């Protein structure tokens, strides 16, 4: 893998600033020439851009044809005046007719002009900016990716985590996803999501609020704001991060495109975190595809009574790993030594006592009934002199008090004992 730089027409007045985490910000210079980012054959780029208008995302047969005939060869087969039967292996006559009808309305290179007018670019396999982890999708890998935003896609994807979840999430889900994204961004990780309502939107906003890096993977053209209510959010992501998609400018989403978009999110990132998802959820599709690709899959638990957490809990019963914050996510996807802090309860004053003093202290009745030093020694199974010495030490520390000839616990010692046992 090699480094990369800014691309062809990668910025206009609306797309400014690189943003991103430490170690990624500044990798590419704003004035780097287009050739730094786009090194592939331009005829290949034109052909692939046209094919994104003809083939649906994730079309494995189309990917097979693309692999066998090359982009220019496949485009020629679909646009030639006459078509030889059987030229496309495994394609029915009806399929060929449909594809050729689509191809008839395509003007090669037209959408490349459209993306350049937006200040964006079209990235294809062979470019230095191409994220090679997408090749793990085999014949289902994208034909190419339409990109808005200045940062280098490959460099950002190398250190990215997907945060996905329910559109109709609860306040708990929105809070957790936003906090996770903020924590990841503050630690130099790129947050990938789908720009949908709910968890996706909260994740993008959490990363942006931290001044960090985020990538929105759309199921439509990168110039189409979907959902429309996220118009301003998508604009901000294009300015501070990256907006990418498989479909050319102007194309609108369909239900199947949303599902197929999820495979790109899964393949692009080192791991996927699911925050709230029902049993039937596109987020679970993303998580399961991530598992198939050998990526880490993580889930944030929720109330067992919540249907919006039922899908996550099902994942956690399988191969997914339970996480509760950014540190735990990074421990899984990060480098050796990126460990989450050890989780411990509060340290109480009595926890600092040596074993002998603690043994004497525990011999005193919890009801604050005074007993003699000899009785304390008997209960603690220690000599009288040892018990008496320990009692005076505990008295100086505020754990016990004298009551005539006897000893009893102080009120503070009772509270500490209850706290240690989990009481009120």
Describe the protein's architecture and organization.
It is a single chain. With 424 residues, the chain is of the alpha/beta class. It has three domains: 1-47 and 115-343, 3-Layer(aba) Sandwich (Rossmann fold); 54-105; 349-421, Arc Repressor Mutant, subunit A, CATH 1.10.10. Helices cover 40% and strands 11% of the residues. The chain is built from 16 helices and twelve strands. It has helices at residues 42-51, 60-79, 93-104, 110-117, 153-157, 171-186, 199-209, 231-240, 255-268, 282-292, 310-316, 326-333, 355-361, 373-380, 384-396, 411-421; strands at 121-123, 145-148, 160-165, 190-193, 214-218, 242-245, 271-275, 296-300, 321-322, 371-372, 400-403, 406-409. The strands form two sheets. It has a nine-stranded mixed beta sheet, sandwiched between helices. Strands 10-12-11 form a three-stranded antiparallel beta sheet. A hairpin with a 2-residue loop joins strand 11 and strand 12. The protein is elongated, with a radius of gyration of 30 Å. 46% of the residues are buried. Residues 1-36 have low confidence and may be disordered.
């Amino acid at each position: 893998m090699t480094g990369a730089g800014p691309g062809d027409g990668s910025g206009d007045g609306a797309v400014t600033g690189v943003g991103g985490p430490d170690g990624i910000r500044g990798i590419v210079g704003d004035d780097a020439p287009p050739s730094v980012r786009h090194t592939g054959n331009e005829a290949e780029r034109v052909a692939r851009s046209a094919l994104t208008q003809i083939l649906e995302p994730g079309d494995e047969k189309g990917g097979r044809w693309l692999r066998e005939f090359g982009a220019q060869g496949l485009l020629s087969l679909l646009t030639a005046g006459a078509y030889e039967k059987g030229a496309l292996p495994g394609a029915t006559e009806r399929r060929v007719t449909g594809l050729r009808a689509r191809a008839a309305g395509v003007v090669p290179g037209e959408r490349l002009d459209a993306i350049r007018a937006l200040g964006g670019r079209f990235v294809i396999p062979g470019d230095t900016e191409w994220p090679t982890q997408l090749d793990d999708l085999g014949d289902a890998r994208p034909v190419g990716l339409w990109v808005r935003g200045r940062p280098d896609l490959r460099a950002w994807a190398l250190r990215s985590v997907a945060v996905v979840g329910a559109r109709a999430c609860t306040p708990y889900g929105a809070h957790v996803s936003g906090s996770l994204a903020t924590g990841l961004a503050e630690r130099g990780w790129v947050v990938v999501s789908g720009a949908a309502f709910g968890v996706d939107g909260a994740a993008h906003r959490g990363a942006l609020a931290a001044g960090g890096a985020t990538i929105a993977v759309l199921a439509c053209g990168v110039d189409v704001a979907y959902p429309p209510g996220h118009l301003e959010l998508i604009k901000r992501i294009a300015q501070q991060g990256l907006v990418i998609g498989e479909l050319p400018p102007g194309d609108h989403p369909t239900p199947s495109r949303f599902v197929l978009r999820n495979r790109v999110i899964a393949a692009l990132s080192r791991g996927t975190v699911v925050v709230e998802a029902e049993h039937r959820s596109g987020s679970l599709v993303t998580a399961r595809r991530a598992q198939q690709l050998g990526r880490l899959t993580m889930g944030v638990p929720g109330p067992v009574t919540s249907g919006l957490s039922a899908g996550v809990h099902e994942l956690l019963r399988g191969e997914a790993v339970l996480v509760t914050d950014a540190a735990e996510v990074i421990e899984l996807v990060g480098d050796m030594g990126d460990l989450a802090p050890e989780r411990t309860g509060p340290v109480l004053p009595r926890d600092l006592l040596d074993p002998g003093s603690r043994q004497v202290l525990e011999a005193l009745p919890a009801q604050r009934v005074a007993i003699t030093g000899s009785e304390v020694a008997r209960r603690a199974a220690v000599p009288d002199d040892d018990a008496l010495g320990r009692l005076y030490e505990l008295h100086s520390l505020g754990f016990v008090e004298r009551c005539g000839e006897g000893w009893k616990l102080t009120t503070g010692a009772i509270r500490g004992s209850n706290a240690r046992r989990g009481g009120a």
